[in-house]
Amino acid sequence: MSEKVIQKLKSEPKNRGYIIMIVAIVLFMIIWSSSVINFESATKDGTEVAKNIIKGIFNPKKEMLFNLTTKGVPYLLLETMCIAFLGTLVGAIIAMPLSFLASSNIVAAPIAYLVRLLIILIRTIPSIVYGLMFIRVTGPGPFAGLMTMSFTSIGMLTKLFSDNIMNLNKAILESFSSIGATTFQKIRFGIIPQLFANFASTTIYRFDINLRDAAVLGLVGAGGIGSPLMFAINSYKWQEVGAILLGLIILVLFIEYFSTKIRARLVGEKWN
Asked: Is 56 in contact with 236 (CB distance < 8 Å)?
């Protein structure tokens, strides 16, 4: 190593104390977090259940996989996908105007702050809690899942749409203001044409998330494939569990592949 490199290294600020402090904090958090976890709960029975689930995936119940009735995996996956799609669509439609109301470069700052506060409140509630609430209101079934997906989508999409609007080039808005354009005209002719690809990409990404959430919400009775999965697990029907999980894995991979490809094309990225 040359002398110049050695001198450069010596001249660098010493962060040893800072690094030691960070390591100590991380170690403390690991030890403290481990103290509240009961590792003894992982019994031999739990290991056996995990083995049975894996065996079920590799040896699924073929009758259920190819059953085209309402009890078959194809119908359950279709129901799950419909819940996710409609929930995303409803959420995106409502999030669009809210995102403009939450942007201080479009509307007055007090209005934007109030709308942002509303969106923060919506986003603080987990989807599983929304699911339990709507099940009480509408009863168990796909409609409760649809309402849950819509509310959770509104929070996330409004936040991301608003961020895109806030990052918009100010010169565009100023040019429309100089010719006397109204707020609606700015949105219609100046903002939406430029941000449409980003909005569509974000919506597709949210649909990807909702597809997974819809499967989880079924565990609490909000429709979709989660309910029969829970019943199969509770009944120790591992081949049925394997069939449902295998179908869900295939669907998620399929949606993931095509949604990523579409989003990459929308934002102008090169797809390899």
From this structure: no
